[in-house]
Design a protein that fits this description.
Blueprint lengths: L1 H15 L8 H11 L2 E7 L4 H9 L4 H10 E7 L16 E5 L5 E6 L4 H16 L1
Parallel strand pairs: 1-2
Antiparallel strand pairs: 1-3, 3-4
Length: 131
């Protein structure tokens, strides 16, 4: 019985580790201001194999999920479906923008990164935030 309860708790914890993406720039900024967080904008495309690779390899990692949820409101925008503000470059996806809650770009990057590389990117952004 104890094993059964443990398994239920274990799997319910795993299911809780997922990223909840917003798709509206203005909504993300408002939420970030309310929560005193930054915004992580991930720009992708509907048929982008590098975007899918990044999602499966990196954005499914429990530690990456934890770090992103702690510090950022998450915003995903597809260059094929969403009206992305013109200040953001949408060619060459995946694109990564780290923003203040007012929408100022702290750091911009592109490419599909593996977990270690993405965590290094998060550290680099943290250093820029403290400058």
């Amino acid at each position: 019985m104890k094993l059964f309860i443990f398994m239920i708790l274990f799997f319910s914890t795993l299911q809780g580790l997922e990223l909840n993406w917003l798709n509206s720039y203005n909504t993300a900024l408002k939420q970030a201001q309310r929560e005193h967080k930054g915004v992580y904008l991930f720009v992708g495309a509907d048929n982008c194999r590098w975007c899918e690779r990044f999602k499966k390899l990196t954005l499914s990692d429990d530690y990456v999920i934890k770090k992103l949820k702690e510090d950022y409101v998450l915003l995903y925008m597809s260059r094929d479906r969403d009206k992305i503000p013109s200040k953001f470059v949408v060619r060459g996806v995946p694109r990564h923008y780290f923003l203040t809650s007012e929408g100022c770009v702290i750091h911009a990057d592109r490419g599909s990164r593996e977990v270690a590389g993405f965590l290094e990117l998060l550290e680099e952004v943290d250093l820029k935030k403290s400058d």
